Amino acid sequence: MSAIAFIDSSKYPFLVDIDEFIEKKWPGLSLVELLLYNAAGILDKAIDNIKAIALGKTSLKHSEGTESEVISFYATMLLIALTGNKWLLDRACLHYAKRSAGSLIKEPPENIISIALALGVSISYSLSASPRIPINTRRGSVVYKELPYSLPVEQYLKYVGRIASDPKYCLVNQIISSGKAYIDKETLVRVLEERMFEYLREKFKPIEECPIQLRDVLEKVREALDKAGNVNVEYSLKSKEVHYINELYLGRISGKFIETAFPPCIMKILESLKKGENLSHGARFTLAAFLIKAGASIEEVLELFKHSPDFNEKIARYQIEHTAGLRGSRRSYMPYSCSKMKAAGLCPMEASCNVKNPIVAYKRNLSKIVGEKPRSPAKTSK
Fold first, then answer.
1. Domain enclosing residue 217, as ranges
2. Domain identity same for 276 and 359
3. Domain membership flag for residue 288
4. What is the DSSP letter of 76?
C-alpha cells in the first residue's frame, strides 16, 4: 500500500488557496481587509518580512504555525507586488523557493511526489528498480549511488531552468532510459527549487496600480524600506570618457572600463543581471572575472551584483575577491573561453566573434573605438 502524503502548509504556503484558507478562519473577510485592519499583526509581520528580504537577512527556518506562515506569506508577496519592484519580487520568490527546498530535502518520497505534482511536475519513485552508479569501494564491496526518482526528459529540460549549464545538472550527465531522466534526491530537490522559483514568479507579478484602499498601507511599506536602506534601486555603470581608452588598454588605469566595448555575451549577462534575473553560477563567474580583467574594482563589481535576487554582500565579496586572486589560491581567474561559453549556453551569437575569450573581444573593441590598436607611448628624451 502506498503511504499517504501529508503536506505541512507552513513549509509550502504557496500551494494553499488563500481565499479558501481565509474563508475558513475569517469568514466574509479578504486578505486586503486583514491588511487594512492589521488583524493578528499581519501587516506588521509582512513589513518585517519585506525588510528582511530586501536586506538579505532572511532565515530558512519556519518559526511560526501554519496559520501565521500562510497569511504572512501571502501578505508579504501582495505588498511586494504592489511596490512594482521586480528585483524585490524576484528576491522574495527566490527566498521562499530556497526555504521550501530546505524543507523538501527532508521529506519522504510520497510528500515529494505530491508537492511536485502540485507544481506540475510528474515524478516517479522506485527504489527496487532504480539505476545504481558505483561511486566507491568499502572493505572490498562496491558502494552504489541510488537514483530512485525519475521524470520525463521533456519536463527535466523544462524545469531545470538556469542551472542547465551546470555540469551536475546538464542532461547529458544524467541517466536516461525510456524517455525518463533518473536522478537522486538532492538533484530532484534542486530542480524543484528552480520550479518553485518560476512557479512563484508566475503566481506573483508586479502590480502597476495600487488599489485606493491600500495606498496608505503601501506608503508604510515604502517608508520601512527607505529606513532600512541598502535596497536595490535602478543602477547604471558610470560612463567613461573616451580619452581613457588608450591607457586603459595598456593596463595603466585600474577601476575603469568601457561598457560600450563589451562583447555581446557579456552585455547579455549584464542586462539580465540589471533586470534582477537570477544568473547561473557560470554566468556570475564569467561576468565577475571579465569585469575584473577589464579593469573594474572589487567595489564596482560588488555594487553591480546587488541586482541579484539572492545577493548576500559577505558571500558575494568573498567570491569576487577569490576570482580576482585576493583570496584562496591567490590565482586570478580568466572568464570562460568562447568555446566554454557556447557549451554553457551563454553565447548569444550564431557566428563566431573570431576570438578565444570575451576579454580579447573587449580589447579589440576598445581599439576600434579609437580607430586603431593602442600603442605604447613614445619614449621622450630627457
1. 13-104+201-226
2. yes
3. yes
4. H
* pLDDT score at 60: 54
Beta-ladder partners of 132: 146
What percent of the chain clears pLDDT 90, i.e. is strictly above it?
A: 37
Quote the pLDDT of residue 103.
94
**Total domains present in the chain:** 3
Residues 31 and 100 in one domain: yes
Residue 365 has pLDDT above 80, yes or no: yes
- What DSSP character marks residue 40? G
164 confidence band (pLDDT: 50, 70, 90): confident
Residue with cell 527546498: 101
CA dist 99 → 84, 249, 255 (Å): 23, 45, 37
Residue 320 inside a domain? The answer is yes
SS3 of the chain: helix, strand, coil, percent, to 5 = 55, 5, 40
Q: Any bridge partners for residue 149, and if so which?
A: 125, 183
* Same domain, residue pair 64 and 157: no
Q: Are 148 and 109 in contact (CB under 8 A)?
A: yes
Enter the DSSP assignment of 144.
E
